[in-house]
From TrEMBL, chain A:
Domain of life: Bacteria
Name of the molecule in the record: ABC transporter permease
Positions of the ABC3 transporter permease C-terminal domain: 294-407, 695-807
GO molecular function, one term: transmembrane transporter activity
Primary subcellular site in the record, as a coarse category: membrane
Cross-referenced InterPro entries: ABC3_permease_C (IPR003838), MacB_PCD (IPR025857), Macrolide_Exporter_MacB (IPR050250)
Pfam family, one: FtsX
Keywords annotated in UniProt: Cell membrane, Membrane, Transmembrane, Transmembrane helix
Keyword Membrane: yes
Keyword Isomerase: no
Transmembrane segments: 20-41, 293-313, 334-360, 380-402, 423-448, 691-715, 749-770, 777-800
Coiled-coil features, chain-numbered ranges: none
Native organism: Kordiimonas sediminis
TrEMBL record, chain B:
Pfam family, one: ABC_tran
Matching Gene3D superfamilies: P-loop containing nucleotide triphosphate hydrolases
Residues of the ABC transporter domain: 2-226
Similarity remark: Belongs to the ABC transporter superfamily. Macrolide exporter (TC 3.A.1.122) family.
Single GO MF descriptor: ATP binding
Cellular component terms (Gene Ontology): membrane protein complex; plasma membrane
Name assigned to this protein: Phosphonate ABC transporter ATP-binding protein
Superkingdom assignment: Bacteria
Keywords: ATP-binding, Cell inner membrane, Cell membrane, Membrane, Nucleotide-binding, Transport
CDD domains to which the protein is assigned, alphabetical: ABC_MJ0796_LolCDE_FtsE
InterPro entries recorded: AAA+_ATPase, ABC_transporter-like_ATP-bd, ABC_transporter-like_CS, ABC_transpr_LolD-like, MacB-like_ATP-bd, P-loop_NTPase
């Protein structure tokens, strides 16, 4: 009996090929998107499972207070001082390990590489069971030891058999390779952190950092740099909430009270396998959940599509149902027959979707560097359930409707013709378009917000500034002037400026200043940028009042940190915060740093304002405008910004490289145009937009396919009416309008519902940006208009065809 | 009013070629009441459709009110049709989703007539055909005769000069059939040209002239002497 139903189902599919093709295509698209979203989410939530102890391993993050004002809600790491304290205070903890990431120059003979080094407690190897090719887990017990991955070993030495070889760090610290491990898996948190596209290749004991940079082995309470982690291995499997509670208690007991109130309010543990998703919690965007949700929404649209088309099409099968009923089929049997038909179609669609996924996943992996895989055996129950559920829900309404009619009505083809069920159809069309308009609106809003971000970045000559990186080495600081002179000798180079920070770099170091000495109450936060005489010139920063730094005025340069007074340039916002209504009023005035309460702390800094520059958003991207001060301080600069003439060609880069090689032969040059540094961050926003656009496109495509199919069926049902109208003098445009209007009402309703939904959803994205677009509502209406006009296009094309038909054909065989 | 000269209609479907009308010559004067008779398949409906400009001839001339419309575009034909010709079909062809009143109004809807005037004209015509008490009924709630009266009302509400009726009584019993014939007759007396296809000799007697078709040819034309 069951097989018989399947046979009938297949026969029906073959009989009505166009209809079946539209249905299968629609469901297949929906399923592909849904499965893809599911697989990606599954992948993201299941990192690090290759490490046997992953279920007992947690990373410790920090919850930021709203007053912290650094643009994120939480951090995926915490102070290194917490490590030893957790180990000492919490009974149920088996092991704690910290890692601190630093970029260093790695040297083997005359081969140099800039690499990120993971400085780690030796306990790291008891938490993570790496796969050792040479050496073993004791490698980090040697304070001069090192673990290196196979591909790094091959890059540096040409072979993996390098235990005992020496590597020189930063021209100062010799380390011995103690173990070579297989490359860390791509789907571990070590390598999947997608903002910073760098692999973990070296583990070096923290003792080395202690020797090189006087890093306190007890850790500290002041550094929360990205890429650092505090790992906790529990003795037993423990719920993540419990781990959070335990470490939070340690924090509450030890951390400074003011810090707890104003900066970091508490700790948050995260299961190791979800550690890689922390970035989304940090910026407060539920990206993975969004991908999942969008997948579900697109699937819902596909199901609605099927329901609509099947309902419309079932009109043509009322006679069949009537006949079957007359011959004795029960309603239940008929219901089963129709449901099996829809499940059969869903099964075919699922097969198509799986084929699509097989093509899609490798493309996705190529584009993202991820190693998402599609495991049939593991996902089989999910696939089967999805197929059944989709088939069932898609077929439910049409089956119900068609099997409801009495045999006499069915034979007369009465019931299904008129108004009945059309409110349902309108509801379904409305739902589809509501979701499409919603997604389209969000895409548009994200797109224009991104565009605004990109446009606002044009205040800097992004394409004319070549940024040289990794200058924060004392021996390079000493050669800055030579480097500058040599670079200026290149004809295309207009100016050179050394600085601790360049625009778009997301580094946010602030401190407090006050207009009058010792006045704590009036304090506010400023960002400081240490540079030289040529920063404003190099980056085209316009002055509002006062003057630029001047080489002839020796007080502009602070020669030693013992000097507690400094000439500074401030921006307009800083001037306003200091209480000056007009920028010019600030020039010649003084403000102060705060006196530290620590013993033998140096005296509070005195700042003398020599100039005020226009407010510019130096951090750019999503950040707020900040108050800035610029000074020439005796500190190491991280960057050299080389302003290049607009007309220069690519060869100027070679000239810059030559100069570098001459002046600083022992460090390789690393450079990027300012635009490249901007894009490093901006590409994340762009990627998000592309993903959203993909979903929205699918949703709209589905809705249009559905509408097309529906318009076809509906128009067929109205051929007679159209014929009569035509005989009575209706013109083609009038008929087209009539057909279009029938479908327009639900689409209009859809706009009304989508409007607030899109408003709130896009608000979530826009909230992330300080400088938001204000065209949100307009864009939502545009999305609605696009959806409406596309639906008109689809229906119109069809309507014209129908309306042009000879009315006689419509009327003669009535 | 109209004149067909050597007019032919050939249907070509894949292999088969059907000559539905073969070099027909017919002239119809203003104010005439013409019946067209003949066996099934002889081309009556085809003739009526061409006369009504719902279909175009394969060859020959069709002169309607001194214009040769044979080569006119669909839009041009539609324009002429709209203002001059009303139709009554055997199967009524009412729109199931509209009320009686709305069905009749449909004939004015595409004529740029203000709603109030439309309403008035529809009401008048409903009175005339005696269907006013059913104005807000759906077609499916009416008897066959009532439905055909609605169709007649719809055909005349636009004050067209000519009404084409294809077996208007074919689906009606004799009493209802007579009723419709009397309506057509009184319209004709008021000056409307009527061309009617029928199988019933009794109904053909209402007409002043009968054209007999056979296999696409006009075989006889009988003129009935005025009483
Ligand atoms: N669209 C068409 N394609 C092919 N042949 C057609 C078409 N329409 C009509 N015919 C043929 O043309 C001939 C005349 O048809 P027509 O409908 O005019 O007959 P009729 O005289 O109205 O018959 P009846 O009294 O049964 O209504 C018939 O042989 C018919 O089969
Ligand atoms: Mg006929």
């Amino acid at each position: 009996m069951f097989l018989n139903y399947v046979k009938i189902a297949l026969r029906n599919i073959l009989k009505n090929k166009l209809y079946a093709a539209i249905n299968i295509l629609g469901l297949a698209i929906g399923l592909t998107v849904y499965l893809f979203g599911g697989i990606v989410a599954e992948y993201e939530y299941n990192h690090d499972t290759m490490f046997p102890k992953h279920e007992r391993t947690f990373t410790i993050g920090s919850i930021l207070s709203p007053t912290a004002n650094i643009g994120v809600n939480e951090l995926n790491n915490t102070y290194t001082a917490m490590g030893p304290l957790i180990k000492a205070d919490v009974e149920s903890v088996e092991e704690v390990a910290r890692t601190v990431r630093r970029g260093y120059l790695v040297t083997n003979g005359d081969k140099h590489f800039y690499k990120d080094i993971q400085f780690a407690d030796k306990e790291l190897t008891s938490i993570f069971d790496f796969t050792y090719i040479h050496g073993d887990a004791s490698a980090l017990s040697d304070p001069r030891g090192m673990i290196i991955t196979a591909s790094a070993a091959t890059q540096i030495f040409g072979t993996t058999d390098v235990v005992g070889e020496t590597i020189l760090l930063n021209h100062e610290e010799d380390l011995r390779v103690r173990a070579v491990v297989e490359d860390l898996p791509q789907n571990s948190h070590f390598n999947s952190f997608f903002i910073i596209d760098q692999k973990v290749e070296f583990f070096v004991p923290l003792e080395a950092l202690n020797r090189m940079a006087e890093w306190d082995l007890n850790g500290n309470w002041n550094n929360l740099s990205g890429g650092n982690y505090v790992y906790v291995l529990m003795k037993d499997k423990t719920p993540v909430a419990e781990v959070t509670r335990l470490v939070d208690e340690v924090y509450k007991n030890h951390a400074d009270q003011e810090m707890q109130e104003t900066f970091i309010t508490g700790m948050k543990a995260r299961a190791l396998k979800e550690t890689n998703t922390a970035v989304w919690d940090m910026i407060g965007m539920p990206a993975i959940e969004t991908v999942q949700l969008l997948g579900v929404l697109v699937l819902v649209i596909a199901i609605v599509n099927y329901t609509n088309l099947a309902t419309a099409q079932s009109m043509g099968r009322v006679r069949e149902v009537g006949m079957r009923k007359t011959l004795g089929a029960s309603r239940k049997q008929l219901l089963l027959q129709f449901l099996i038909e829809s499940v059969t179609i869903a099964t075919v669609a699922m097969v198509v979707a799986i084929v699509c996924l097989e093509l899609l996943v490798p493309l996705f992996n190529d584009a993202t560097g991820k190693v998402v895989s599609f495991n049939y055996l593991q996902t089989l129950p999910w696939l089967v359930t999805t197929t059944l559920v989709v088939g069932f829900f898609a077929g439910l309404y049409p089956s119900y409707l068609i099997t409801k009619v009495s045999p006499i009505d069915a034979l007369k083809e009465m019931t299904l013709k008129g108004g009945r069920g059309s409110w349902f159809r309108s509801l379904m069309i409305g739902t589809q378009f509501m979701l499409s308009i919603f997604m389209l609106a969000v895409v548009l809003i994200v797109f224009f917000q991104n565009k605004k971000v990109e446009e606002s970045s044009n205040i800097y000559p992004k394409e004319e500034v070549l940024v040289l990186k990794r200058l924060n080495v004392e021996s390079i600081r000493e050669r800055e002037e030579t480097l500058r002179q040599e670079l200026l000798n290149i004809p295309e180079v207009e100016s050179v400026s050394f600085a601790t920070q360049v625009p778009f770099e997301q580094s946010n170091s602030t401190f407090s200043v006050t207009p009058t000495k010792g006045d704590e109450a009036a304090k506010f936060q400023v960002n400081q940028l240490d540079t030289d005489h040529d920063f404003m010139k190099t980056f085209d920063v316009p002055f509002v009042a006062g003057r630029d730094f001047d080489r002839a005025i020796s007080a502009d340069v602070r020669t030693s940190t013992d000097v507690r007074r400094s000439n500074v340039i401030i921006n307009e916002m800083a001037a306003r915060n200091l209480g000056y209504a007009r920028a010019a009023d600030a020039v010649g005035q003084t403000f102060w740093g705060l006196q530290s309460e620590e013993e033998d702390a140096p005296a509070a800094m005195q700042f003398d304002i020599i100039g005020v520059v226009e407010d510019q958003n130096i951090l750019g991207l999503h950040n707020d405008m900040k108050a800035w001060i610029f000074a020439i301080d005796p500190v190491r600069h991280f960057y050299a910004a080389v302003r290049i003439n607009r007309t220069a060609d690519a060869s100027v880069i070679l000239k810059v490289e030559d100069v570098w090689k001459q002046v600083i032969p022992e460090y390789p040059i690393e450079h990027d145009f300012l635009v490249g540094m901007f894009n490093d961050v901006y590409q994340i926003y762009k990627a998000m937009n592309s993903v959203l656009a993909g979903f929205a496109f699918m949703a709209l495509l589905l809705a249009l396919i559905g509408l097309f199919g529906l318009a076809a069926f509906m128009a067929r049902g109205r051929t007679k009416e159209l014929g009569i109208r035509k005989v009575l003098g209706a013109s083609i445009p009038q008929l087209v309008k009539l057909l279009i209007w029938q479908f327009s009402k639900p689409v209009m309703w859809a706009i009304l519902v989508a409007l607030p939904l899109a408003y709130f959803a896009s608000d979530m994205y826009l909230n992330f940006f300080a400088d938001r677009i204000n065209t949100q509502i307009v864009l939502i209406l545009v999305a609605g208009a696009v959806a409406v006009s596309m639906s008109w296009g689809v229906i119109g094309l069809h309507a014209i065809k129908v309306a042009r038909g000879n009315p006689i054909t419509a009327l003669r065989y009535e | 009013m109209l004149k067909l000269h050597n007019l032919s209609k050939v249907y070509r479907s894949d292999e088969v070629e059907t000559v539905a009308l073969n070099s027909i010559n017919i002239e119809i004067e203003q104010g005439e009441f013409v019946a067209i008779m003949g066996p099934s398949g002889c081309g009556k409906s085809t003739l009526l459709n061409i006369v009504g400009m719902l279909d175009s001839p394969s060859s020959g001339e069709y002169i309607f009110m001194d214009e040769d419309v044979a080569g006119y575009s669909e839009a041009q034909l539609s324009e002429i049709r709209k203002h001059n010709i009303g139709f009554i079909f055997q199967s009524f062809n009412l729109i199931d989703e509209l009320t009686v009143e709305e069905n009749i109004e449909l004939a004015l809807l595409y004529h740029n007539i203000p709603a109030s005037e439309r309403k008035a004209r529809v009401a008048k015509v409903m009175d005339k055909v005696g269907i006013a008490h059913r104005a807000s009924h759906m077609p499916s709630q009416l008897s066959g005769g009532q439905q055909q009266r609605v169709a007649v009302a719809r055909a005349v509400v636009g004050d067209q000069a000519m009404i084409l009726a294809d077996e208007p009584t074919g689906n009606l019993d004799s009493a209802h059939g007579q009723e419709v014939m009397e309506m057509l007759q009184s319209l004709n007396e008021e000056g409307t040209t009527i061309v009617m296809v029928t199988h019933s000799p009794a109904h053909a007697d209402y007409a002043r002239r009968t054209i007999n078709l056979f296999d696409g040819h006009v075989v006889t034309e009988n003129l009935r002497a005025a009483e």
